[in-house]
Amino acid sequence: MPVFINRVLNMKNIKVIGFDMDYTLIRYHAEAFEELTHKLAAKRLSERVDYPEEVKNLVFDFQRAIVGLVIDKRNGNLLQISRHGKVKIAYHGLEPLDFHKQQIIYQEMAIDLRDPDFQSLDTSFAISYGVLFSQLVQMKSEGYSLPGYREIAEDVNHEIDILHQDDSIKSRLRADFDRYVIKDPKVAGMLERYRDYGKKLMIITNSDYSYTRQLMDYALNPYLKKHKTWQDLFDIVITFADKPRFFEQKGRFLRIDPETELMSNHTEPVDFGIYQGGNFHKLQKDLGYSGSEILYLGDHIYGDVVSIKKTCNWRTALVLGDLEDEISGLIKSKDVQQQINKLMDEKLALEKEINFIDAKRFEGENIPRSRLTPLFDKMDGLNSKISELLRQYKIFFNPYWGEILRAGFDESRYAEQVEKYACIYMTKVSDLYDYSPKTYFRPYRRIMPHEDMTLLS
User: Where does the sequence pass through the membrane (predicted)?
Assistant: First the structure.
């Protein structure tokens, strides 16, 4: 897959390249991973007094949520919103929200994610959260005794957080890496190539060192050709980083002995080795590079991209694994999209003709209104054809939500964040394998509406 470019990024000027680990350096089989998380979280909830035992029998449906959705804790809805904060699709439980109800609740509202009533699902780790929340709201709608929507959302979030923290999930992964982890030989080749070009490499991950070591041993070591282990590739490894706090607050560094895994307080320069915790202020100071000389790649739009741009001005790259299926859908739907474009061009020409005639009539020319009637009839015919083609187009994408980076005709809120904060983005980190470490990434010139010659001609 190609690398997609939002802003100029000259890799020749990048001296340090940092990576998140989970879903970035190491990819997971997302459906299997999220199904496991969903199952464990549902079981924990079913063991609580205020949740029925039937919760543990809920069947995971991977299609029920996508990256970039928003939970409305007040109304119990799952939303897809546009870059302007407008709700385009809404589900209450597993049922689409009636359009009239959607209008009543959201028509006058632009969703502000700083409002505690809303929770964004901005990473692949959040798919299980969205699915389980929707299923519990559905159960509540069907008469099961469950807490309020806000409490449901917070309980699901809490249980999933605990699962990630207490080794419940990671112990299952370690026992069966083959099932959950995608091996990609190109990642090892890409990293060794960057080393050959003199780039410093580092990992900043929220996972603990023990899990990091086991996962990296499994996924990278078998494919290294010029290094014995992955630890020989990286100058600095920072575990339990607690992002986005790592980029927003000051925490102390602990040095980790890679053999014993014992930790000790570290106040010396952070320039080589394996650490836990810390903060970007000391890291960047000790590295001795400006923010524009450091590139960081991650999968979490807020924790790995937005927080960096707002605090330390590093260059950023987003790994959006879900985009691979979306691109496949775009390719398969190409013929339908071309038909839609053709009809839209006809519609635009027809609208110009109607506007021209209507303007002449307004200026006093003796043009009967009946001349417009066949044009409006033709417009209705075009609209019907376009509506049918749009229905066909949607078949190629998620059956409930459509595209990740589109919300109806508009770009989605998630797309707006990708465009605004990620210098480049890609479906997987190994997409960089096909580019020289000195590549000059240049975006295409963006055409603003007033620059579109088809509208001005």
Answer: none
